[in-house]
Amino acid sequence: MHEATLRLLELGLSNKEASVYLAMLEIGPAGVQDIAQKAGVNRSTTYLTLDELKKRGLASSSTENKKTLFTAESPSRLSAVLNRERDELESRKKKLQESIPYFMALYNAIDDKPQVRFFEGEEGIVALREFMAQSRGEYLSFTAIDEGTLRMANINPAQRLKMSRRVHGRYIFSLKPKFAIPKMDLTNWQVKQLPYGAYPFTGEINIVDNKVAAYVVKNKPLGILVENKEMTDLFRAMFNAAWQVGKPVDKRKMG
């Protein structure tokens, strides 16, 4: 790249602005076609670039024999252009500082904003499980045991079994006919069952502290984590309603 072009780029001009400006410096007053050819920029782009250079005070136009000619302003104008743009930037920065309290008030208008994160693929599911297992509150798990759940259970089953031992809580499941319950340690759990046919759903929802994690499997495993007290309270209330209609299970017959 030409050294003059590099210097103009350092001063804040775009590559096309630098090329068109240098072309005008070299050929003097000229029409768009000649400037475009000299600069190596297509005609329509040259028109737009000339407009930008005129706005910045680096180019001017005149009419001669009904033809519009464009001329580069003296390079000494570059200093004035930079000073003006610096002043405009300082003005915008000042306005921003004055506006930040207003924007922060809008940002803080809702307390405890939901934080939503997505975990994709098998590695994502492993990471989400581990994150949820770090909590020490009562763990609520709502699961449909079917093709999707079994596929999810087979993602690092050792981690899943270890997690079931580390946490404590309540577990509601529905079991699709002809499917087996994945191996898990339910020592620290209360367990109830919902009839699969009466309450059909697929996937898994886990609730602990102010976190809700939902797992589904379609083309690839997907986990969604929501951290928000109001959202968690909503899911916890729904879980408790399901818990009331669930049937107690003999844990010795599971896992």
- Global mean pLDDT: 86
Tally of individual domains: 2
What's the architecture of the largest domain in CATH terms?
Answer: 2-Layer Sandwich
Structural class: alpha+beta
What characteristic shape results from the CA principal axes? elongated
Total of DSSP H or I helical runs spanning 4+ residues: 9
Explain what the structure shows.
The structure is a single chain. The chain has helices at 3-10, 15-27, 32-39, 43-55, 77-107, 121-133, 147-153, 157-166, 229-245; strands at residues 59-64, 67-72, 115-120, 139-145, 169-175, 189-194, 204-208, 211-217, 221-227, 247-248. By secondary structure, the chain is α+β, with helices and mostly antiparallel strands. The mean pLDDT is 86. Strands 3-9-8-7-4-5-6-10 form an 8-stranded mixed beta sheet. A hairpin with a 2-residue loop joins strand 1 and strand 2. 47% of the residues lie in helices and 23% in strands. It has 2 domains: 3-75, Orthogonal Bundle (Arc Repressor Mutant, subunit A), CATH 1.10.10.10; 115-253, Endonuclease, Chain A, CATH 3.30.870.
Set out the fold topology.
Layout (H helix, E strand, L loop, with lengths): L2 H8 L4 H13 L4 H8 L3 H13 L3 E6 L2 E6 L4 H31 L7 E6 H13 L5 E7 L1 H7 L3 H10 L2 E7 L13 E6 L9 E5 L2 E7 L3 E7 L1 H17 L1 E2 L7
Parallel strand pairs: 4-5, 5-6
Antiparallel strand pairs: 1-2, 3-9, 4-7, 6-10, 7-8, 8-9
Helix pairs in contact: 1-2, 2-3, 2-4, 3-4, 6-8
